[in-house]
Amino acid sequence: SQQGEEDPQALSIQEGENATMNCSYKTSINNLQWYRQNSGRGLVHLILIRSNEREKHSGRLRVTLDTSKKSSSLLITASRAADTASYFCATDALFSGNTPLVFGKGTRLSVIA
Amino acid sequence: DAGVIQSPRHEVTEMGQEVTLRCKPISGHNSLFWYRQTMMRGLELLIYFNNNVPIDDSGMPEDRFSAKMPNASFSTLKIQPSEPRDSAVYFCASSLIWEGLAGATEQFFGPGTRLTVL
Questions:
Q1: How confident is residue A51, by pLDDT bands cut at 50, 70 and 90?
Q2: For B26, which DSSP code?
Q3: Looking at CB atoms within 10 Å, which of A58, A92, B95, B105 has the fewest?
Q4: Are A25 and A5 a contacting pair, CB within 8 Å?
Q5: Which residues does A contribute to its contact with B (CB < 8 Å)?
């Protein structure tokens, strides 16, 4: 069953603008991860945020997590054409030890130069 | 580091034929995952292994699908017989887990095998 659901499904912005993608999930988690997928490629891990963290940064990426609302957001600042890709959130299940990830259907981001 | 290696990258076959997809995980990783990606259903987990042992195959769609991991450096996903609805991109991913860890770790994905069943 789908755990994470991204919103919006598609997003188109101009280069230099910020892009915000949201993810909602249903059950309690240990951590939430964001991945990027370029067309025709495998997924690449971007960032992991644990359930006891509220915000995390990595370069131009900023991820927030609100466990009370079961939601997360990924912000890409000063976007570039190379950021064009699909972005997925993935969650595990609390108390399951090594648990597999469940991926959402992703947000397709287009950054127009 | 070569990353996760999958072969073939593309496979076109006719309905009823046997298809075997191959995966070499990153050396030292002890978890391996097989996923299927389609536009309609997104990324679905088919099966995953810990230390070469299948842990959960509830995502395998039918008995036509089977997966093996004979050793830490090789896994196969077999479809026999194949059907047109099996057409998808199949990904293999690997990760490193350790005892006492709570929560999933970062997964490293291969480039995928694009399967077309005619």
A1: very high
A2: P
A3: A58
A4: yes
A5: 2, 29-31, 33, 41-45, 48, 50-51, 88, 90, 92, 95, 97-106
pLDDT tens figures, A15-34: 999 999 999 999 888 899 99
CB pairs under 8 A between A and B: 61
- Per-residue pLDDT tens digits for B17-67: 999 999 999 999 999 999 999 999 999 999 999 999 999 898 998 899 999
Q: Which of B31, B91, B103 sits opposite A92 (nearest CB)?
A: B103
pLDDT in tens, B99-112: 777 777 899 999 99
**Residue B50 in contact with residue A100, Cβ under 8 Å?**
no
Find, among B4, B5, B2, B21, the residue nearest to B77 by Cα.
B21
Residue B73 backbone zone (phi > 0: left; psi -120 to 50: alpha; other: beta): alpha
Pick B45's closest partner by Cβ from A50, A100, A105. Answer: A100
The total number of residues written for chain A in this structure: 113
